[in-house]
């Protein structure tokens, strides 16, 4: 592959990434879906950093959700610093964008056929699992495993962010996403 082709594909991928990241801003409904998903993802990730504390606080008084999130956000900052908190927030934001784009793909597929929807569903589930990343270890009872990870789990968060950015760059704007037909079909 020549350097010119590589630069052309990279430029196209960056353009598609920009379109994917700006897609939720094209309507109030999409922005609401992205914001709600971002908030939900952030809350789940923060609560899953210390699952025993989260369970104790929320079972004793479910109205203390804000207290638990604020306390665990402070605890996340204390244990991983600004980098860890920034990665966690970026993770939640990218998940919100990915879900808003996925909802658009599902709506578009529903108009076409059930087989297209069946092709999109595993991708949505995979993106959802990737967005949990480091937090899912705590939920599954492997909170101690986070201490063994290099850089306090930030490397795992960074890998999940990289995966989400790659997928968003590959899909681009869901309104224009299509599979090119080959000459034989």
UniProtKB/TrEMBL annotation:
Swiss-Prot/TrEMBL keywords: Membrane, Transmembrane, Transmembrane helix
Superkingdom of origin organism: Archaea
Transmembrane region(s): 31-50, 82-106, 118-149, 155-172
Keyword Transmembrane helix on entry: yes
UniProt-recorded name of the protein: Uncharacterized protein
Gene source species: Natronosalvus rutilus
Lineage: Archaea, Methanobacteriati, Methanobacteriota, Stenosarchaea group, Halobacteria
């Amino acid at each position: 592959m020549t350097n010119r082709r590589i630069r052309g594909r990279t430029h196209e991928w960056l353009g598609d990434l920009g379109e994917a990241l700006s897609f939720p801003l094209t309507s109030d409904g999409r922005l609401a879906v992205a914001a709600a998903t971002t908030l939900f993802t952030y809350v789940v990730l923060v609560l899953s950093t210390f699952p025993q504390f989260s369970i104790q606080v929320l079972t004793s008084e479910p109205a203390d959700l804000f207290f638990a999130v604020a306390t665990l956000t402070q605890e996340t900052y204390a244990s991983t610093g600004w980098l860890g908190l920034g990665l966690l927030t970026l993770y939640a934001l990218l998940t919100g964008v990915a879900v808003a784009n996925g909802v658009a793909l599902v709506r578009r597929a529903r108009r076409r056929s059930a087989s297209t929807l069946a092709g999109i569903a595993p991708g949505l589930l995979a993106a959802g699992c990737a967005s949990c990343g480091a937090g899912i270890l705590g939920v599954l009872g492997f909170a101690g495993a986070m201490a063994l990870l290099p850089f306090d789990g930030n490397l795992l968060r960074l890998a999940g962010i990289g995966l989400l950015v790659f997928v968003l760059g590959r899909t681009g704007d869901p309104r224009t996403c299509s599979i090119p037909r080959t000459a034989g079909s």
